Amino acid sequence: MKNAIKLTALSFLCLPITALAAGGDESTSLNLTTSWVGYAALVIFVVAYTLVILEEKIHLRKSKPVLIAAGFIWVLIAFAYNAQGLTHEVEAGIRHIFLEYTELFFFLLVAMTYINSMMDRGVFEALRSWLVAKEFSYVKLFWVTGIIAFFMSPIADNLTTALIMCAVVLAVGKDKPGFIGIGCINIVVAANAGGAFSPFGDITTLMVWQKGIIEFATFFKLFVPSAVNYIVPALFMQLAVPKGGPEHHDDQVVSIQRGGLVIVFLFVATIITAVSFHNFLHIPPVYGMMFGLGFLKLFGYYLKITRAATPLAESPPIEHDTEPDEDKFDIFDKVAGSEWDTLFFFYGVILSVGGLSFMGYLAGVSTFFYGDLGPTTANILVGFLSAIVDNIPVMFAVLTMSPEMSEYQWLLVTLTAGVGGSMLSIGSAAGVALMGQARGHYTFFGHLKWAPAITLGYFASIYTHYLMHG
User: Fold this and answer.
1) How far is residue 450's CA from residue 177's CA, in Å, rounded to a whole number?
2) Residues 6 or more apart from 114 whose CB is under 8 A from it?
3) How far apart are CA 165 and CA 142, in angstroms?
4) What is the Cα 464 distance to its own chain's centre?
């Protein structure tokens, strides 16, 4: 009787599961899309991502729900496969997806460490101080901060760029709150647009480049469409910028600390190394980034030993250090200061979406999107999905589906995924971050007011891409 019950339970577990041959007897996958396992995984993912969207309201870090979701999804997959006697397929699937995440993780970790090092040396604070001291009018500041964000984002990434330029807007707009809101919207649009034409400007472009789908130089074909995406809404938004300019305050001018410019040079050299490794030696870009991290660590050691080399006779008899605390440079502090919540969020998203793909969901979505609707319509819709869900899981899903597309279409989906998030404040990491940094000034509904102009820029950039490369 007990064996019959077990057999019945096992049959119920696997009843809706269809085994699909995938290249012979040795490689078997299960279609779980119509099973309770698949439905449960979808519910788990939707609940987790709803909590991510509500992060600013419930103050729950976005990495926590997706980490748990990824764990549950793969445990469900493992149960289903073990019930069919397939004990190795899940392990192989996880290892494949985890390797993709690992490359992205270390690439971003190096980039974040460099950005933290430049912030520690006052590179970005010096830029902010210089802009504040220039006494520009509000209209000129609107354009200057937007243009700098557009050209900084391809190197420093759109999130970091938005946070730096938002600090400028908050500083110069403290006497004119109306300028802060429109200035932040302008920065979000500019940073997202600038990040779309560089492999280093956005996580989505980085994923496409590391996947080897588009060559490094090919991304720059999106420069003009990206510029159109920024300029069109900016022309409308400038009409709402307050007249006049900020009052001049005799703030202390900030200068770059010792070693700051060298770190900027090392960062540029590291990017060149990563690109060269990929293009000429066919080595994954992450190895070039890790190589560059080694030089940064050596330079950190140089800063440490030269700091301690000050003759004691020239310094007061202090018991411990003879240099001011702000001159200290510890590379491991810069590594620790990375956006770990963001890095773990990427893990949860990539493993969750990878799990749904492993179950068979993305194959059906790919057939509908890129088969029935066609690649152009599908890629335009990707931009709107990015505004609602976030571009990272959307782009990872597209890369996992790997539809057969031309270079033009891959550039199109790279563009739409990168700039589509600008349509809503929650559609990009830059927008979400600025809602916290400029709380009360930059809001969801304040951004929504300019959604028609931003959407116009979205379609204008797509049309520009079509005229130039279609």
Assistant:
1) 17
2) 263, 266, 267, 270, 292, 296
3) 11
4) 24
Q: Please tell me the distance from the alpha carbon of residue 447 to that of residue 424, in angstroms, as a whole number.
A: 7
Q: Read out DSSP for 277-304? A: HHHHS---HHHHHHHHHHHHHHHHHHHH
- Percentages of the chain per state (helix, strand, coil), in multiples of 5: 75, 0, 25
**Greatest CA separation for the chain:** 91
Check: CB of residue 423 under 8 Å from CB of residue 384.
Answer: yes
- CA dist., res. 215 & res. 368, Å (int): 28
Q: What angle do CA 21, 22, 28 make, to 5 degrees?
A: 65
Burial string for 172-193 (b: 16+ CB within 10 Å, else e) reads bbeebeebbbbbbbbbbbbbbb
The full set of domain ranges for the chain reads: 2-21+28-87, 100-245+253-312+324-469
Residues whose CB falls within 8 Å of the CB of residue 444, separated by 6 or more in sequence, listed in order? 424, 425, 426, 435
Question: In this structure, what DSSP letter does residue 327 have?
Answer: G
For residue 31, list its beta bridge partners. 18
Amino acid identity, position 403: P
Kindly report the backbone phi and psi dihedral angles of residue 255, in degrees, each rounded to the nearest multiple of 5, phi listed first. -110, 155
In this prediction the pTM is 0.75
- Give per-residue pLDDT as tens, 340-378: 887 888 898 889 988 988 898 877 778 888 888 889 999
With H, G, I as helix, E, B as strand and everything else as coil, classify residue 202: coil
Burial 433-462 (b: 16+ CB within 10 A, else e): bbbebbeebbeeebbeebbebbbebbebbb
Choose the weakest-confidence range: 13-17, 51-55, 299-303, 423-427. 13-17
